[in-house]
Design a protein that fits this description.
The complex is a heterodimer of chains A (366) and B (108). Chain A contains 13 helices and 13 strands. Chain A has helices at 8-11, 16-28, 34-48, 59-69, 86-94, 115-118, 138-147, 200-209, 231-241, 244-262, 292-301, 331-339, 351-365, and strands at 52-56, 77-80, 98-101, 123-126, 151-155, 163-164, 167-168, 175-179, 193-197, 269-270, 278-279, 285-289, 340-343. A 7-stranded mixed sheet of chain A has the order 1-9-8-5-4-2-3, sandwiched between helices. Chain A has a 3-stranded antiparallel sheet with strand order 7-6-11, with no helix packed on it. A 3-stranded antiparallel sheet of chain A has the order 10-12-13. In chain A, strand 4 (123-126), helix 7 and strand 5 form a beta-alpha-beta unit. In chain A, helix 3 packs parallel to helix 9, helix 4 (59-69) packs parallel to helix 5 and helix 10 (244-262) runs parallel beside helix 13 (351-365). The relative contact order of chain A is 0.16. Helices cover 41% and strands 0% of the residues of chain B. Chain B has one domain (14-104). Chain B has helices at residues 8-11, 15-24, 34-47, 58-68, 87-91. Chain B has 5 helices and no strands. By secondary structure, chain B is mainly α. The chains are: A alpha/beta (366), B mainly alpha (108). At the A-B interface, helix 2 and helix 5 of A face helix 2 and helix 4 of B.
Chain lengths: 366, 108
Amino acid sequence: MKVRYSYLEQQFDDVNPYLDDIRALVKTGDFTLGKALTEFEERFADLLGLPYAIGVGTGTDALMLSLKILGVGPGDDVITTPNTFVATVGAIAMTGARPVFVDNNEEYTIDVTKIEAAITPRTKAIMPVHLTGCPAQMPAIMEIATRHRLIVVEDAAQAILASIDGQSVGSWGETAGFSLHPLKNLNIWGDGGVIVTRSQELRDKLRLFRNHGMTTRDEIAFWSHNCRLDTLQAVVANRLLDQVHVITDQRITNASRYDEAFADLSEFIRIPPRRPNIKQVYHTYVLRVVERDRLFQYLRGNGIQVKIHYPIPLHLQKAAKDLGYRQGQFPVCESDCQTIITLPVHQHLEEQHIDYVIDNIREFYR
Amino acid sequence: MQVKYLDLHRQFQDPEIHRAIARIFTHCQFVLGPEVAGFEAQFAQVCGTRWAVGVNSATDALFLALKALGVARGMKSLPSLTPSSLPWARLSPLGPGRGSSMWARTTI
């Protein structure tokens, strides 16, 4: 049996409804901004229970523009974690600010007990990452940020519909960035991102910021980027918004099936804490395991497309050389890189696929 | 009589465009992939240049080109690139003189 990590061919087995929507768009010639994008932004904001959403070119753009619009730039520090997808840190660096790392906790999110030690007079913002679709500990982060007068921009790229006590991620910080990349839970046919905010002022500025700073066709308020969400992709996203709850629920169901199956293998497998007030949406299903590399090869050999998110911590990447970090500074993250494994958890897995993965892992540790 | 400034609807009636889009769903590689590599190679040929690198917008094309050449303030994250050190000069799957999308393959 093969258990695939990517499911796009199954998800888009029948593309005709999407192509019909796109044909309708082509008739309008409305290829930038326009009605489809506005519809998407309104529905996305509603989905999260927030007043405003702004479609941008990528999830990275969502984070970078958020920081820039809030005044983060050269001379500032932004606190985040080294166990994240590179886009978090790339977005910070592209503003001219310096990324400052804090180790992660058992849930793969920023360790709130270590944030304050990293705050200096240069610190301007905190960018918590809701990695794997698990919300970072936002109440504690907001408390620290308020006390030190820091901006919070949430990296919610992997966490659409995740929540804490029923309150959606993306609603805690000044803004949050989501990704619509093809492997995200809400996934379009290329790159795309969304910024959400409660502030009308920020929404208005961000709308200009993503579109050359143009207030009208002929007038420019300030120099800026061009990073709009493609209208064609908004058309795809509008159809997918109808499915996002079903997709999310199926991923949660699949993750629970794994969790239950591995509960008695604690000698070999560490399941992250599953706090009852937290809704995780399982963009990825990541475990810490004994003999990771051998298990990885074993599962791959048996047709199961496992992955590692991510094998090299960002503070030890070549790109981070100028930041001056060294091995041993973030022991949890560094140890995780040696022990984590990602199992397929997507919505197109059938029970027999999940059970096949479980059986193989049980067999490996027998 | 109406004289339209732009007639995108008419321009995109070409069934070959629709077939080309349909082909993407045979592999579902929605980021980079063979279509981007093929486009870059053809675009370079049209321009008579060795390389073409597809980006999000023409604004990005100018912005990234300036940054890659070291023009921007505080630009430390990209090393100063000389043409021979450009990664795609070595990594091009299409051979020398052709475009390549190997520079930034998406991580999944």
